[in-house]
Amino acid sequence: MARKTSRNTRYAALNAGDNVETRRLIHAGNRLAEEVARIFPSEPDTADRHYWLETMINHVPDYIYAKDRKGRFLIANEVTVADNGLESLQDLVGKTDFDLHPAKAAQAIADVEQRVIETGEPIFGIEERAIVTKGRDRWLMTSKVPLRNKSGQIVGVVGVSRDISDRKAAERLLEGQARLLEMIAKGKPLDQFFTDLILLIELLLPGVKGSILLLSDDGQHLLHGAAPSLDEVFCATIHGVEIGPRVGSCGTAAWRGEQVIVADMFADPLWEGYTEVVKPYGFRSCWSTPIHSHDRKVLGTFVLYSQETGVPSEQQKELIATATYLAGIAIERKRAEDRISFMAHHDALTGLPNRVLFEEQVAGVLEAIRGRDQWAVLAFLDLDNFKLINDSLGHTAGDELLKTVSGRMRAAVRKSDMVVRVGGDEFILLLNGLPTERDVVLSRLEDIRAAIAAPLQLSGRSLQVTCSMGVACFPHQGQTVSELLANADAAMYRAKALGRNNLQVFTEEMAAKAHEKLLRQEELREAIAHNEFFLHFQPQMNLASGRIFAAEALLRWQHPVHGVISPGAFIPLAEETGLIVPIGDWVLKTACRQCKAWQDAGLPSLIISVNVSARQFLERNWASRVAAVLAETGLEARYLELELTESLIMQDVPGAIATMHELEAIGVHLAIDDFGTGYSSLSALKRFPVQRLKIDRSFVEDIPLDADDKAITAAIISLAQNLGLRVIAEGVETEAQVEFLRQSGCDEIQGYFFSPPLVARDFETLLGQRRVHADAI
Fold this sequence. Notes:
Blueprint: H1 2-15, H2 20-39, H3 46-58, E1 63-68, E2 73-76, H4 78-83, H5 89-92, H6 97-100, H7 103-119, E3 123-129, E4 139-148, E5 154-163, H8 165-185, H9 190-204, E6 208-215, E7 221-226, H10 232-238, E8 241-242, H11 250-256, E9 260-262, H12 275-278, E10 285-292, E11 298-306, H13 314-345, H14 355-369, E12 374-383, H15 386-393, H16 395-412, E13 418-423, E14 426-435, H17 438-453, E15 456-458, E16 461-463, E17 467-474, H18 481-497, E18 503-505, H19 508-529, E19 533-542, E20 548-559, E21 563-565, H20 571-577, H21 580-600, E22 607-611, H22 614-617, H23 622-633, E23 640-645, H24 646-650, H25 653-666, E24 669-675, H26 682-685, E25 692-695, H27 697-700, H28 707-722, E26 726-730, H29 735-744, E27 748-750, H30 760-776
Parallel strand pairs: 17-18, 20-22, 22-23, 23-24, 24-25, 25-26, 26-27
Antiparallel strand pairs: 1-2, 1-5, 3-4, 4-5, 6-7, 6-11, 7-8, 9-10, 10-11, 12-14, 12-17, 13-14, 15-16, 19-20, 19-27, 20-21
Helix pairs in contact: 8-9, 8-13, 9-13, 15-16, 16-17, 18-19, 21-23, 23-25
């Protein structure tokens, strides 16, 4: 009874372990014992027991064995004997692991078994690499328990080892997939990803060497991607191979778009003519699988080479499919990143680098030649009359022109140079490392200008486009990127001022003007911040009644040093820099507020007329901004008139008309200023929702002496009357001019003949005097 209890205790110890596999093995043994008892109900003799026990353990695929305290095998099943390279149990009994395996591996086994013997504690579920590999990477789950005699003394150890290689491979694959997907998510370099992917597959499929080839942009060649275990000479030989219907495994797979399995390269017709390439490396089989995009386009191939003939198993095919799927994700992700990066750093229309990429790279280019006897030449160029071409032939033709010119510039420079599209029809050229000879530099730039100006066909027309170019050389004409850009820009504007279609090199005179311009720009900013602007108001009179019906708000600048500055001296700069927008907003708000103040003071109601700049008018939601000003100042919309120039409207006729209708809907009056000096278009004029035309002073000043001016002025008045518009003449200074205008049917006048522009207080006085005079009459 004591021995039975001891045995039950040992079984309980086994069942208490964490090793699921061992418990399953014990359970299977119990089931087998029950089945034997059912077949042989009588008590079997000792020989039968030995036979059944031997049969049972020999049918188990796991290693089962027992050793004495010195590590000598006492018994083992057949698989243990065979995998240790022996023919029978007798060959194994009495041997230790030191007799069978390398000393380091044998010592590790002995240490574990000695611990079990010394402590009497079983060890369950040890995961260890198998010493006997069977030609592949194998893992075992091993459990070891003390071996006791009938007296309960520990006399050795019993071991059970199960092959868990498939499970470990699956775990490694999952871990590898997770790591590779993380690499994709983090945007790791593609070659690094390919290398890790191939090494993972090689680990899971011992005996093979992997490679990834990428399809070239032209879709005709395979390019080296990664092959960490292959010879570099072999990879270089394969690089650039042209795909086709009989080009080995890879070239054929890419051509067909389907997997190509070659079990023996020396016997397969696909490898005819290519076997000499692989012969030095001993490869015999080659399995190549296309890497597809999400829409099934071939991106490249994943290939495995082996020195053994044969084809992959179903399990290996699944592993290859997983690898190609991951490779496809990585390639598409990288291409998407490249596209995004290209879009961020290049112009969408021309494909040229944009200002962002230029600013990222130009500092490095300049630094590379600093101290050398070389120049870096920065040229700022602007196409001449591009807007006229764009407006007359349409935006599609304009886009084609820009692409053609961009291609010509790119072809006219070296690979080390840069051609950058800044925006619109403006470009930057950076010519790097030129000799410090003015004639050489100018010759190179004139060649580029000549290439741009070559005749071209556009919308069925033969055109020739010229450019204005400004040049600054590093380091003599600018030490920094900003200095070079500013100086080249100043030189370009000088080229345009001299009639366009020429090249100007930056000079110190330009530097002084540029400095003055920059200074005036900063002064304008300070003027806005310090409220240095004020308004004059020039009355507008009805010729028939003599009544003041409106006032034009005219901007003035009270400079703290130079005194009052007229708008002609600073408005062009404000337009160029964009400062005209906040200045114009201030004018509009101040004029409306003043008009409302006059009304509240009981003065006769009149219209306040405000000039609108092109930059203001093109601002988004301009009509809404006007409505907001009216609401803020309390002025009714019918008392506001906005003066728009012809050139402003003709920049974008459909857009201008839409904005004008929005303003009309608010109730604001519209007038065309300086009529006759812009791009007059009678077909467009009849569509404008305007109430007045304003004759430019240039036509009025020589009346009545100049017959042409008289004819033009009379024609404008007649045109306005036929279109149902009122007409006002500005710059009226003499009685003779007034008389001519009255006889010609002009409705209203404005000018020094009646009154110069006045400050608000003096205008109030004039308005009060006119009311008293009218009442007296």
